[in-house]
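hi got a favour to ask and not much time before my train. below you get a single protein, a line of residues and a line of whole numbers that encode the local backbone shape. could you go over both lines and see whether the tokens make sense for that sequence. a few lines back from you is plenty, here it is:
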Amino acid sequence: MTPFELSITAGEADIDELGHVNNAVWVRWIQDMATSHWRAAAAPEHVDLYVWVVVRHEIDYLRAVLPGETVTGRTWVGEAPKGARFDRHVEFLGEDGKLRVRAKTTWAILDRETGRPLRVPAEVAAPFLASPSEGWGGGPPKAVEG
């Protein structure tokens, strides 16, 4: 499966006192990537019935992003869901192709009406599957880290 991608440009409100994108902004961008991917790929009735919540973030900050710089965020799902949970991977690459930030987040699905977790239904997972034999997403194209 091809990762879902969005371009994001750092605005003045995203910058901290050190002159680069603030860590809290990266968390927001990670969540924005996941939400955008969900809304783009999920069936409308699934968006109406279910909501996803983060239960864990792991973030590696590798390079700074400065005001006005644009990054390409890309996201894909990891291994098959474990009950109500699955892992999502997010990377942000600079215009030079170098990795700026990478994250792995664990999300849980909730029934929107009751607020209770439930097993990820197969029909909800299907749009995010690479193929039944490959599992969830497989992985992204290789990023340049050096």
